[in-house]
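step=encode ok
step=design start
structure_in=
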């Protein structure tokens, strides 16, 4: 038989265990099934994009609606067990970010809003698009080849000889030295591309790509 103190201690331990389990469940990220459900509720036409994200060899596609981000939305502590998701997409037709909130418990879309000048990080597909655009631009390719030759002494034959990184670019991050086309970045969706050799030597030129219009607008020098 447990004495009174032992019973109290055991009860407290059980309550702590249950509370921690509830808290952990309430804070855990969305499962793959929940991610799919969230996209289906917010933007069913983008389910294929979600599926393609696991394919590292998927070709770059100029989507009119680009699925940017799906993540767990925090809820009030008074609503344990409620699971909400934020779904963000970029509408290239209007240059707006679409933000939807969905309730995974009730399977309903709770709210949708369109916001201008909200630029979330680039997707892998957008990075691939930016890379494709700079290598398909004859003038840009000539400059990249010259820079590669200067750094390595070798000839750049194919894009795979380089490492490519990119991030969202907005005109207010570099107010001076931008041409008219680049000044639209932030209102339109743009990427700044960083190029590296395989031994991590960075290029002294950094292309700005306007993904909304599909053009390289200029180079920024370092």
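sequence_out=
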């Amino acid at each position: 038989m447990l004495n009174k103190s032992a019973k109290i201690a055991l009860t407290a331990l059980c309550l702590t265990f249950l509370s921690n389990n509830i808290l952990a469940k309430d804070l855990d990220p969305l499962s793959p099934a929940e991610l799919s459900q969230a996209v289906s509720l917010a933007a069913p036409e983008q389910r294929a994009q979600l599926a393609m994200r696991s394919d590292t060899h998927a070709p770059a596609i100029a989507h009119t609606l680009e699925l940017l981000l799906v993540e767990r939305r925090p809820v009030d502590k008074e609503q344990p067990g409620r699971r909400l998701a934020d779904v963000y997409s970029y509408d290239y037709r209007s240059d707006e970010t679409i933000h939807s909130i969905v309730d995974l418990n009730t399977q309903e879309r709770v709210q949708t809003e369109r916001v201008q000048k909200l630029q979330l990080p680039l997707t892998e597909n957008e990075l691939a698009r930016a890379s494709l655009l700079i290598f398909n631009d004859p003038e840009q390719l000539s400059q990249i080849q010259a820079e590669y030759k200067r750094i390595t002494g070798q000839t750049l034959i194919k894009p795979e000889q380089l490492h490519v990184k990119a991030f969202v670019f907005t005109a207010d991050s570099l107010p001076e030295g931008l041409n008219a086309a680049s000044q639209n970045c932030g209102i339109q969706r743009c990427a700044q591309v960083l190029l590296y050799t395989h031994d991590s030597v960075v290029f002294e030129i950094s292309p700005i790509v306007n993904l909304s219009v599909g053009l390289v607008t200029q180079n920024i020098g370092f």
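step=design ok
step=annotate ok -> The chain has five helices and eight strands.
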